[in-house]
Amino acid sequence: MVALLALISVFVVRLVDIQIVRADELNAASLAARSTTEDILGARGSIVDASGKVLAQSVMRYDINISPKNAKTYTVGSGADAETVSVAKASAELGRALGMSAASIQKIIAESLADDPESDFAYVKKMVDLATWKKVEALDIRWVYGEGHPSRTYPDGAVAGNLVGFVGDDGEALAGEESAANKCLVGKDGSTSYQTGVDGVEIPGSTTHSVAAKNGGTLKLTIDSDLQWNVQQALAQQAQSVGAAWGTAVVQEVKTGKLVAVADYPSVDPNNIDATDADDRGSRAFTASYEPGSTFKALTAASAIDAGVADPLTQVVAPYRINFPNGADINDSEFHGDEHLTLTGVLIESSNTGMSQIGEKMTDQQRYDYYQKFGLGTETEADFPAQDPGNLNGTADSWDPQTKYATMFGQGLTTTAVQIASVYQTIANGGVRMPVQLVEGCTQEDGTVTDVPKGKGERVVSASAAKQTSDILEMVYQQGWLANTWNIPGYRIASKTGTAQMPDGNGGYSHGYLVSVSGFAPADDPQYVVSVSLADPVNMNTSGAAAPIFKQVMSQVLKKYRVVPSGTAPPNLPAAW
Fold first, then answer.
1. Strands 494-503, 329-331: parallel, antiparallel or unpaired by DSSP?
2. pTM for the full model?
3. Tens digit of pLDDT for each residue in 43-86?
4. How far is Cα 405 from Cα 364, in angstroms, rounded to an integer?
5. Helix, strand, coil % (nearest 5) of the chain?
6. How many angstroms separate the CA atoms of 169 and 292, rounded?
7. What DSSP character marks residue 21?
8. Distance from C-alpha of 355 to C-alpha of 362, rounded to nearest angstrom
9. Distance between CA 362 and CA 306 in Å, rounded?
10. Residue 377 exposure: Cα atoms within 13 Å on the Cβ side
11. Beta bridge partners of 210
């Protein structure tokens, strides 16, 4: 009896320990032993153009894998309907679905087993599309299975590829807006936990924990993808024709500052980044600064007029070469005698000596302050990766005698293509600079719109100064040496060419040139800016190389957006006195 009571006491103590004292611990251990946690992937958001057309989106891709140790003959069906499926037959069926030979699949099996007789995993083909996976899945081969991976695809290929950017094989954002707007686009993975039986199959109704996945937002750009295609084509065709090393073309909406096209040549197809050199995978329009040359004279003219030291009729005598008292030596690009020019004539003839005399009517600090107000020397408001802020060559106090004058006509400092477009947008918009805008905003999955750029402009020069500068630029368009090359009938155009020597990286200049054209239309009611640059066009080292692109792009812009032709007569300003 004592022994029996002792034995019962042991069992009671053990039962209390299991069911009461350690109940929670043992339940948790039991649950963990038969629980499975599965990730729920949050999809990366899409990038779309201004009209909602998809430029980048996430799709599911599948790795086709096998279990080599289980690659054996098996039987399907039963009785008279039973069918034996050999490894050779299954390999042939799988090969047809994947576009591979049966021999290649059997080789994968053999090599894997040679390395490890118990091998339970080997890749057959990576990242196939859904349609291919469905074909494989329908074969129901017992030792074949698929593993899904979110992948990125770019339906329009190289169209805006320079802006959209790309992600790596691991989904990490690497370039362009994919990188800049990663916070908007990236999804957040969820998870679900459930219990399984001994066969590994989920027990119905056994879900114990679930966290919903959150998909990324949709990033909307200001870019018009149809126009972007046209601009890229025009840029690439002319750049190849004149042998340019690279080129850019920017189209900006005057009233808003929105970029509707930003083309680069060469450019990248995000679907196949390895086909493009690393240096050509971004957007030089944002990331490559250069000395702009004579397109910059419009800024100096606008600044001088706004400062009250000049107007379109201000007179100078412009020789071929001037030696200023501080030791600066300035000359024009071609030899000529003394020319009696107005400020209008200075821009028509693109005279460096004439512009230097206009520019010196302002102090160095005045000019420097205008440069900053025009947005130079700092990154634009468009949040684009690796933007080059340009270089104003120190401060006004640090300029040497040559730089003091060279900066008046676009040398001795650097800007980007987008910054020059912004300068012309400011002049076209009555002197009000609008923030450069590439992104409309980010729409979250619940419909909330975030990251909307500020659209408030800032006055840089007076409306009167901007109008007078615009009138001068119209005269350049009418009477400049490219008047017949860039003529667009029916519209008043304000524009300026530029040709600048390219720095050699050692403090001097190479023999190559950067040629450019910038302008806006219609001049009587400005709607769009077009700015084109070509680097080292070896077959035509003049701004005439860029003019055909300007004409083609501006014509397409005016046509596409149905801009009303000009209804008033252009100005008639004297170029000489």
1. unpaired
2. 0.84
3. 899 999 999 999 999 888 889 999 999 999 988 887 777 888 89
4. 9
5. 35, 25, 40
6. 38
7. I
8. 12
9. 11
10. 16
11. 192
